[in-house]
Specification:
The chain is elongated and about 140 Å long. The N terminus is likely disordered. Helices cover 53% and strands 10% of the residues. The strands form four sheets. Strands 2, 3, 7, 8, 9, 10 and 11 form a seven-stranded antiparallel sheet that branches. Strands 14-1-15 form a three-stranded antiparallel sheet. Strands 5-4-6 form a three-stranded antiparallel sheet, with no helix packed on it. It is of the alpha+beta class and 815 residues long.
């Protein structure tokens, strides 16, 4: 570039030469409006360049001596092998600033995510070790299919007689086996095992729950008497005696005492019709003045006839321990004596119209897994004259729970499994309380620093004053509420777990084997285990939801969060419409098919069946059997409206929201999807930050980049980046241009040198044109007008030349 102090005619000559030479005019030194400055530079020396040369003076000798070696090495660098010319690389200023600004949040986000995932994995591991699902399933499966015969003879129990047949033919043969499969009798050491390896604990317990009679028409409803009252005089309650008494304790008007008749066979105590009230100081009075009443006379006579029946008569006396009338078949009595008891119960009509339910319970111990297994089969007798269907609302249920009565067998020759589980449980316990303490500490710190409502802060991106922080906003944050709920459930889980352990190690409840009684402690612990399982379910569900909280820092993971947020307004409107349509179809199916198909027998069952149909479990044949014509209308309308229309609307909402979320994420990174950080790029950055030394610090680099960004620059060379660093810092850290680019946050772009020169010439030309545009037409001299005309010609030539160069470059790349 020439001197900016030359007179105007020389400037006109130079500009004329640029116009004649086309592209060469872009490189002239005197493109200024008044000749003071050249188009490409200044006459004075750039102070930043001078400062950089002064700072790099100490490195000149080493650079000169190693220049030849570096030239040879350059060809073997990774970038060179990839076809990248390092001289043509520039620092992307805005992208580098964004990387540096995002790094603290990114680092904190990955630390929190990894910590939470490790905690979640630890929690799941402890749950699996505590429950031991693999071994428990094998025991459960064997007892459920071989002893209970869940899918076979259990399904055949419909009447009271069927229950006795099930007891004698299925349960007694498997729980009290008397011989091998070849009819050889079992020896004393071989007897007492269920399925060869499960030792029977105590014996088999049968409990009957009985109801009472009532008047078919309540006294208060005499004005609405039925014409058939005399035809059907006696009705029975569908509730047990215990539930009726408990119901009237809380609400005297819930069931009028005058409508009940407690004069039933072997009722608990001598409870009169007015005996629903009781003395609070005497709990036994709930069941009358004589809760240990004697069995019926015919039962006493039966026992006198056959003294081998043992405690057969106790089945006709109310047992407060089990809430019903129980008969215990002890293992010590042997299979023959126990079968005789069952036959005697059948003969004495132990089950009758007052029977509301029967429970069959027993427990076994498997020494190979050191666990007790509790089995309970519950039959509920309906007022239709048959037991309610298996695994339906209020129907027959099978509960099998496995309990470890020695959860911590530590020391000696015991395997280290229990010790390992105990260590993991302690770590989990400490981790949970650390999370709770962290939440409380965070809230206290926010309260101390930011107060209740927070502080006002200027948003650097928008320049607006916003209210941030504060305990109020912290508590209103949905994630805070989810975290709090999760921690509360964790604490509740710990309380339940400690309660289970307290029950197990209670000296009064320890199972002393061999025993000749039913061990109710196993049933008690199984109820608590069910509570623990429910807490585990909700805890894991909340942990899965909380994972989305830790995805927010990573742009690509956060797309799912943004998708759900964008879709929420449409989703809850859709849900309202969907529930309305599904409920309408449930009502239709309940009316059309509920009289013959249990899947539609109640409104809840119809809703559940509709949900299953929506997910593909369609069964047209069943409804066609009930109503061939209306089933076609129902089926076609259901599939069209729900499976085709509504589900596709839901899919459209989610797809559209996902597209919006992806577009918003790309917009944050200059509408370039390749610039959006991925897990791979983040892992690469973390690795580079973990294993790099000697590069410039984030603080120094940020200050330099802010200066360049304020000047409106988008790209710069490493040397230019270094020129803005104070000499003291350069000398102290021995910084070089190469070290300036070794910071992992620096984003390097390869640029075309010719393209860069053209862009610089375009920028200089725009500056010169702006100066002329700032002058009025009247204020321009003849020379200014000539210069403007010549600059317009140069600009046109430069554009043409730039177009040709870009076209050539594109062809060269394709070749």
């Amino acid at each position: 570039g020439g001197s900016g102090g030359e007179v105007a005619p020389n400037n006109l000559d130079i500009l004329g030469g640029k116009a004649a030479n086309g592209a060469n005019g872009a490189n002239g030194a005197n493109g200024g409006a008044n000749g003071a400055n050249g188009a490409n530079g200044h006459a004075d020396e750039d102070p930043h360049a001078a400062r950089a040369r002064a700072a790099l003076a100490n490195n000149e000798e080493s650079e000169e001596g190693g220049r030849q070696g570096s030239t040879l090495k350059k060809a073997f660098t990774f970038k060179a092998l990839m076809g990248v010319e390092e001289e043509n690389e520039r620092v992307d200023i805005k992208a580098t600033i964004q990387n540096i600004e995002r790094w603290p949040a990114k680092k904190r986000g990955y630390n929190q995510l990894c910590s939470f995932l490790v905690f979640f994995a630890l929690y799941c591991m402890v749950m699996v070790l505590q429950m031991n699902p693999g071994q428990v399933f094998r025991i459960d499966d064997a007892l459920r299919n071989q002893v209970v015969d869940e899918s076979g003879s259990l399904q055949d129990v419909s009447t009271l007689g069927d229950l006795f047949d099930y007891l004698t033919d299925q349960i007694m043969d498997t729980v009290f086996p008397g011989s091998w499969y070849n009819d050889d009798p079992l020896t004393t050491s071989e007897a007492g095992y269920v399925l060869d390896y499960n030792k029977l604990v105590g014996g088999l317990l049968i409990v009957q729950r009985r109801g009472v009679r009532r008047k078919c028409v309540e006294p208060r409803y005499k004005l609405t008497n039925s014409s058939y009252d005399e035809f059907y005089r006696v009705c029975y309650t569908d509730k047990t005696i215990e539930s009726l008494v408990a119901k009237n304790l809380t609400s005297a008007a819930a069931l009028p005492p005058a409508s009940l008749d407690f004069s039933v066979p072997w009722a608990p105590g001598s409870l009169p019709p007015e005996g629903l009230t009781f003395d609070p100081n005497d709990m036994t009075s709930i069941f009358g003045l004589n809760p240990t009443m004697a069995p019926p006379q015919r039962v006493i006579d039966k026992k006198a006839e056959n003294n081998k029946l043992g405690n057969f008569d106790e089945a006709f006396v109310y047992d407060h321990r089990y809430g019903g009338f129980s008969s215990f078949l002890a293992y010590a009595d042997g299979s023959i004596k126990n079968l005789a008891k069952i036959e005697a119960l059948k003969e004495m009509l132990w089950l009758d119209k007052y029977t509301r339910g029967v429970d069959i319970k027993f427990a076994v111990y498997n020494g190979y897994v050191n666990m007790f297994t509790f089995v309970a089969i519950s039959f509920n007798y309906g007022l239709t004259g048959a037991f309610k269907e298996y695994q339906r609302a209020g129907g027959t249920q099978v509960v099998i729970k496995t309990v470890n009565m020695e959860p911590y067998r530590i020391g000696g020759t015991n395997p280290p499994d229990d010790l390992m589980r105990l260590i993991l449980e302690i770590i989990l316990l400490i981790w949970i309380f650390n999370y709770v303490a962290s939440l409380i500490r965070e809230m206290c710190e926010i309260g101390i620093k930011e107060g209740w409502s927070g502080k006002k802060k200027k948003d650097r991106a928008t320049g607006q004053i916003v209210q941030v922080g504060g305990v109020k906003n912290f508590l209103k944050d949905p994630w805070t509420l989810i975290d709090t709920a999760n921690y509360v459930l964790f604490i509740y889980y710990i309380v339940v777990r400690l309660d289970i352990l307290t029950t197990i190690y209670d000296l009064d409840k320890i199972i002393a084997v061999p025993t000749n009684k039913y061990e109710a402690v196993l049933e008690e612990i199984s109820v608590k285990l069910s509570m623990q399982l429910m807490l585990n379910f909700f805890n894991i569900l909340l942990c899965l939801v909380r994972c989305f909280k830790f995805y927010r820092f990573q742009p690509r993971l956060a797309i799912i969060n943004k998708t759900l947020i964008n879709a929420f307004p449409d989703l809850y409107h859709f849900i309202l419409m969907f529930v309305t349509v599904l409920f309408g179809f449930a009502v239709m199916s309940n009316i059309l098919f509920g009289t013959e198909l249990w899947q539609f027998s109640t409104l809840l069952e119809a809703l559940n069946t509709g949900w299953l149909w929506m997910n593909g479990a369609l069964n047209y044949a069943e409804i066609a059997r009930v109503d061939a014509e209306m089933s076609v209308v129902y089926y076609v309308s259901f599939v069209f409206l729900i499976n085709i229309v509504l589900l596709n609307v839901l899919l459209a909402i989610l797809v559209d929201s996902y597209a919006m979320a992806t577009e918003d994420t790309n917009a944050e990174f200059g509408d370039d999807p390749e610039k959006v950080p991925s897990l791979v790029s983040d892992i690469g950055e973390i690795t580079r930050r973990s294993f790099h030394w000697g590069g410039v610090s984030d603080e120094v680099l940020t200050n330099v980049l802010y200066i360049l960004d304020d000047q409106g620059k988008e790209l710069c060379t490493p040397a230019e980046l270094l020129s803005y660093v104070p000499p003291k810092i350069i000398a102290a850290n021995k910084l070089t241009a190469e070290k300036m680019t070794q910071n992992p946050s620096v984003v390097m772009l390869e640029v075309d040198p010719e393209e860069e020169k053209l862009q610089a010439a375009d920028a200089d030309m725009e500056d010169a044109m702006k100066k002329f545009e700032g002058k009025g037409e009247a204020a321009m001299s003849r020379q200014d007008k000539m210069e403007r005309a010549i600059l317009g010609q140069i600009e046109e030539l430069l554009r043409e030349n730039a177009f040709l160069k870009r076209q050539y470059a594109d062809k060269k790349k394709k070749m």
